Automatic annotation (TrEMBL):
Domain Fatty acid hydroxylase: 115-252
PANTHER family: ALKYLGLYCEROL MONOOXYGENASE (PTHR21624:SF1), STEROL DESATURASE-RELATED PROTEIN (PTHR21624)
Annotated source species: Sediminibacterium roseum
The keyword DNA repair appears for this protein: no
Cited InterPro entries: Fatty_acid_hydroxylase, Sterol_desaturase/TMEM195
Protein name, as recorded: Sterol desaturase family protein
């Protein structure tokens, strides 16, 4: 029993730090695997977790560390380890198996198909992410990721356990139908996951997160800080993850304005230190609105309309908040929607 406990604990430790594959290579002494893509990736994967550790240690050293900035994301990570991981894997496997025969084309793992595949993946990510902000049921799954009132790498782990499966069903289905074969898809997922974690880096490490000229061509940490903001100027923007092509196409790209400091969090009153409020709060409020809404139609509308919609007509959706903020005195020049 004791040995099993320590084995399980070691597995969880190496899983978080992404050390398992690299440890196996070092322990075996067989470094030939480093000539393969999988071997190289096994040493790339630990970079983000150790960057998180560096972020924390640096905050401690400069006396800027606040346990509340990391506590709830950590609890969410642990909670999701029990509930979410296997469901998400099963969702991806099901979509690949079911939709592969309906693919419009067939791709291979080459550099040109990688470019095509990433553009398709980014479109699929945009669709999932846009719906996560525009459909209240999906916002309930996504809001825990926006609840933290500070930005750091631990925020990337703060997701409701069903959001991964929901996101992967949409993204995988679109990509498989577009012809991405599994090896290519999984490689793109790895890039997306790594970059998607990195863009949550806090200003403790990267004060100016625009990354120079790259800010024009990709979604930088600066863009993602904007995405996590509750300022009217910034709400519901920058839905892509790495390539900003689809935000440009759909008019949702918003760069960081130096005169408008980012205010993180969500617009409803929330206790960001309370795990239950962060994780289940939006679900509770949705259930309450559905219960009190008159008639089946209004009950359904609360589920599928954007957050802030009200059957009374007193809407407080992001679109209306942004529209009201277009007052020239506020100097908010907003992208068209």
């Amino acid at each position: 029993m004791i040995q099993d406990f320590f084995t399980a604990a070691w597995h969880e430790f190496t899983s978080f730090w992404q050390l398992g594959e690299a440890y196996d290579i070092i322990a075996s002494g067989n470094y030939d695997k480093l000539r393969t893509l999988d071997g190289v990736l096994s040493f790339v994967k630990p970079i983000i977790p150790f960057l998180l550790l560096f972020e924390i240690l640096r905050a401690v050293f400069y006396k800027r560390f606040r346990i509340e900035d990391y506590k709830v994301p950590f609890f969410i990570f642990v909670f999701n380890r029990v509930l979410g991981a296997y469901i998400s894997i099963a969702a991806v496997s099901f979509c690949i198996g079911f939709f592969s025969e309906y693919a419009v084309i067939k791709t291979r793992f080459t550099w040109y198909w990688l470019i095509y595949g990433y553009i398709v993946w980014e479109f699929a990510h945009f669709i999932y992410h846009y719906l996560a902000h525009k459909v209240r049921l999906f916002w309930c799954l996504h809001s825990s990721h926006h609840a933290p009132q500070n930005m750091n790498l631990s925020v990337s782990y703060a997701h409701f356990f069903l959001e991964g499966p929901y996101a992967n069903v949409i993204r995988t289905t679109i990509c498989v139908l577009a012809g991405l074969d599994p090896p290519l898809l999984f490689f793109i997922m790895f890039i997306d996951g790594t970059w998607g974690t990195f863009i949550h880096i806090g200003d403790n490490i990267m004060k100016d997160a625009r990354m120079g000229v790259l800010n024009r061509y990709i979604l930088t940490p600066s863009h993602h800080r904007v995405h996590h903001a509750k300022n009217p100027l910034y709400m519901d923007t920058n839905f892509c993850n790495l390539l900003n092509i689809w935000d440009k196409v759909f008019g949702t790209l918003q760069t960081e304005d130096r005169t408008v400091p980012v205010e993180y969090g969500i617009t409803r009153k929330i206790n960001p230190k309370n795990f239950w409020d962060v994780y289940f709060g939006e679900i509770v409020f949705l259930a309450r609105d559905v219960k009190n809404a008159p008639g089946i139609r209004n009950k359904l509308l609360y589920v599928f309309m954007p957050p802030g919609w009200s059957h009374t007509g007193e809407h407080k959706t992001a679109r209306l908040i942004r529209r009201e903020a277009r007052d020239p005195l506020q100097r908010n020049e907003l992208p068209a929607q």
